[in-house]
């Protein structure tokens, strides 16, 4: 079997067999297939696509390329959740304690961010003392003890995806649906998930800009998961506006703390309750979504989710008291953006809000960039809310005066106030099972 023949076969639109896909993945991980041939194959996939059978086989081969977790120690059905990312998306941190408090264990490996803000691991790193790296034994023992742990992705989990993703990033093949779907799903399969809930976002602040693109990706991932024996559910959610009010690492942790104590923004709570309810359904704790939402709401009202969150922080070495007392470090230089007129705040461009947060220091431009964990943006007024002239609309935070000045220039062009309340699209578009 020769790689050049498989490149040619895919270039001509033919389907590859399981053995051929295994040859490609094994050869690439082991170094027998060079980057230039893998790049050619990825571009052939970009233009020619893959059948569901091919994509499912690619997912499985990638999942089997490294370590795989055995979660049978938990003694419960384990459900994983994945978001395709967005501006102000801190749902993992909110859902973990809520779902765990309802009886479904959450054992999650998350990544660091590259772009407008940090990833889940960066956000947790803003809690003093919090350990993002645990051994596999420590990780599973903690989940068994309190039902919740979130750690950085292990070094040998799906190495094929790490290599292929880095290659796609520099060969203009990132947006290939089969390659995106297999990348996401291979990590969920390797992490031992029996049920998978996907938050597939669309809009200006998401990778998929239209609902049609998001629907195709969601359908592909659901079909892959179900074909590989994992119950998979996808929720299509709108990311044309930032989710919640806080965009930035420690700022988002503080917003999660508020939300777990019943003071969360409506949009963040709506999306979190929807996703969490489906996690409870997939975890076979409840029979339907409405019952799931009731159980999650009870976990908030009783304080069970909040105390589970504090226990989670403490177990991983974090200063839970600092979070409870809102003593997380926030960047010292801050500046309000004031409304020039009285009226209704018009919709923000979520992507531009994300760029603003990154400009202030909250995100990475490259993998080597350092993050200012206390930097970011708080939306004092969200789209559709009434504001008086002279009131703050945005609050900017940075540790660098030059970054703050640059952010000011960007922010002034993001704010608009009108005489009529804008019509905002629904947050949840549809659910695909």
UniProtKB/TrEMBL annotation:
EC number: 2.4.2.2
Gene3D superfamilies hit by this protein: Nucleoside phosphorylase/phosphoribosyltransferase catalytic domain, Pyrimidine nucleoside phosphorylase-like, C-terminal domain, Transferase, Pyrimidine Nucleoside Phosphorylase, Chain C
All copies of domain Pyrimidine nucleoside phosphorylase C-terminal, residue ranges: 344-418
InterPro entries hit by this protein: Glycosyl_Trfase_fam3, Glycosyl_Trfase_fam3_N_dom, Glycosyl_Trfase_fam3_N_dom_sf, Nuc_phospho_transferase, PYNP-like_C_sf, PYNP_C, Pyrmidine_PPas_bac/euk, Pyrmidine_PPase_CS
Leading EC class: transferase
A GO biological-process term: pyrimidine nucleoside metabolic process
Top-level taxon of origin: Bacteria
One Gene Ontology MF term: metal ion binding
Catalytic activities: uridine + phosphate = alpha-D-ribose 1-phosphate + uracil; thymidine + phosphate = 2-deoxy-alpha-D-ribose 1-phosphate + thymine; 2'-deoxyuridine + phosphate = 2-deoxy-alpha-D-ribose 1-phosphate + uracil
Task performed by this protein: Catalyzes phosphorolysis of the pyrimidine nucleosides uridine, thymidine and 2'-deoxyuridine with the formation of the corresponding pyrimidine base and ribose-1-phosphate.
Subunit details: Homodimer.
Xref: NCBIfam families: PRK05820.1 (NF004490), PRK06078.1 (NF004747), Y_phosphoryl (TIGR02644)
Entry similarity comment: Belongs to the thymidine/pyrimidine-nucleoside phosphorylase family.
Descriptive protein name: Pyrimidine-nucleoside phosphorylase
Organism name: Desulfosporosinus metallidurans
């Amino acid at each position: 079997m020769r790689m050049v023949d498989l490149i040619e076969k895919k270039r001509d639109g033919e389907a590859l067999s399981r053995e051929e896909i295994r040859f490609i993945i094994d050869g690439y991980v082991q170094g027998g297939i060079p980057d230039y041939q893998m790049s050619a194959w990825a571009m052939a996939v970009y233009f020619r696509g893959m059948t569901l059978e091919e994509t499912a086989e690619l997912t499985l081969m990638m999942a089997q390329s490294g370590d795989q977790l055995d979660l049978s120690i938990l003694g419960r059905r384990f459900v994983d959740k994945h978001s395709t990312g967005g501006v102000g998306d801190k749902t993992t941190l909110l859902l973990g304690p809520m779902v765990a408090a309802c009886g479904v264990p959450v054992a999650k490996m998350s990544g660091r961010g590259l772009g407008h803000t940090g990833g889940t691991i960066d956000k947790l790193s803003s809690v003093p003392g919090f350990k993002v790296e645990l051994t596999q034994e420590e990780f599973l023992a903690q989940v068994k003890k309190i039902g919740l742990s979130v750690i950085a992705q292990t070094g040998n989990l799906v190495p094929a995806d790490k290599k292929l993703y880095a290659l796609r990033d520099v060969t203009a093949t990132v947006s290939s649906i089969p390659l995106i779907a297999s990348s996401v799903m291979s990590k969920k399969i390797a992490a031992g998930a029996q049920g998978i809930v996907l938050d597939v976002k669309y809009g200006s602040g998401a990778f998929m800009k239209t609902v049609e693109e998001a629907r195709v990706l969601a359908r592909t991932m659901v079909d892959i998961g179900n074909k590989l024996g994992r119950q998979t559910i996808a929720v299509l959610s709108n990311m044309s506006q930032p989710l919640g009010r806080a965009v930035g690492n420690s700022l988002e942790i503080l917003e999660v703390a508020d939300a777990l104590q019943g003071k969360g923004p409506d949009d963040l709570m709506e999306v979190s309750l929807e996703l969490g309810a489906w996690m409870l359904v997939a975890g076979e704790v409840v029979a339907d979504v409405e019952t799931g939402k009731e159980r999650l709401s009870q976990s908030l009202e009783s304080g069970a989710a909040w105390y589970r969150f504090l226990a989670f922080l403490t177990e991983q070495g974090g200063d839970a008291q600092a979070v409870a007392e809102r003593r997380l470090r926030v960047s010292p230089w801050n500046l309000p953006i004031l409304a020039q007129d009285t009226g209704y705040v018009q919709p923000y461009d979520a992507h531009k809000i994300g760029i603003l947060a990154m400009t202030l220091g909250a995100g990475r431009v490259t993998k080597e960039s350092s993050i200012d964990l206390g930097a970011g943006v708080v939306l004092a007024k969200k789209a559709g809310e009434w504001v008086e002239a002279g009131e703050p609309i945005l609050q900017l935070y940075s540790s660098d005066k030059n970054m703050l000045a640059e952010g000011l220039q960007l922010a002034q062009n993001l704010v608009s106030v009108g005489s009529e309340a804008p019509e905002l699209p629904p947050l949840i578009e549809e659910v695909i099972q």
